[in-house]
Amino acid sequence: MEMRTTPLASAAHGTKLELTALHFGKPGTGEKVVIQASLHADELPGMLVAQHLRRCFEEHERAGRIHGEIILLPVANPIGLAQSLLSSEAGRFDLDSGENFNRNYPELTRTLIAHVEGRLSADTKQNRTVIRGAMKSILAGMVCVDPLSSLRRALLLQACDADLVLDLHCDYEAVLHMYLGTPLWPAAEPLARLLGVEAVLLATESGENPFDEACSKVWWELAVHFGDEFPIPLACLAATIELRGSRDVTHAFAAHDAKAIESFLIHRGVLAGDAVSLPPARCAPTPLAGSMPIETPRSGVLVFSAEVGEKVRRGDCIAEIVDPVSSEVTRLLSPVAGVLYAREVRRYVRAGTRVAKVAGAEALRTGRLLSA
Ligand SMILES: [Zn+2]
Questions:
Q1: What protein residues have CB closer than 5 angstroms to ion ligand 1?
Q2: Using CB atoms within 10 A as the burial measure, which of 67, 176, 308, 361 is most buried?
Q3: Rounded to two decimals, what is the model's pTM?
Q4: CATH fold group of domain 2-284
């Protein structure tokens, strides 16, 4: 294992920021895999999973069982990890700009088209190499003077030519679930089964370019643009994996999740070993546009009547909002049938707060599909 650091732009004199990556295996001997933890810096289950994976990869490396290259980022967001506000961690938004750390990655497709026009052929592999090279040179040429944009560039530069990218997050209170591009589902299905995810949210474009989409979406967009004459592969399987809720930081969960990722890497041939038979799927994928947020119209004390993981019907009561002054009770009903996969963690909520999300089967929403 080799530990490498990338300096990031610093915010002020006397401060220094850097990104640490653990490298296992050898580039060019198989697939390139990037696994990063806690891009939303206060989402910590992934940080513990990374520790379990680190030990696992060290063992595989000692035994010569890595065919390819694995890069593990145990702390993907040093900026957010250093932020706190009135003794509470604040790792989801950059306090300087107000931006979400997992949105607004560079949209590369248009620039890429201009870069690779006239350089593609009928050879899929060759096209993949040309596009990856172009992506790296575009990113390397970007001027990033502030910490946030230099972090985004460093992460994307590391992952843009990877075959597999796993971005480890969590929700507030949740069951295991994942987000990824619709065209990638067949390749990701074994991972979903190994992890035992209870919801899979698919979109070809979720809006606001989160990290996983910045890595993967260019491939299907370029394939559509260039058509059959210049075949473009889906060269990057990228997924955002939500490792339950923010308080679900236990060795039991982390060991389970690391084992599932290890099994998936064996399944893809990155690690040598006996492939385990895939457990049955715990859910069918549903469109991200079918994931329905349940908003409270009033402020009050939030009392849930449904647990995460529960399969609810349309019209089922999910929670009550109790007005502490008038004693009035407002019942919040699920607008669709589906899995209640994530809930709010606070128990006093203001009017307009999204208190839960239900994964429904029908695509009912348009526009920006991710929560803030
Ligand atoms: Zn997150």
A1: 40, 43, 169
A2: 176
A3: 0.98
A4: Aminopeptidase (3.40.630)
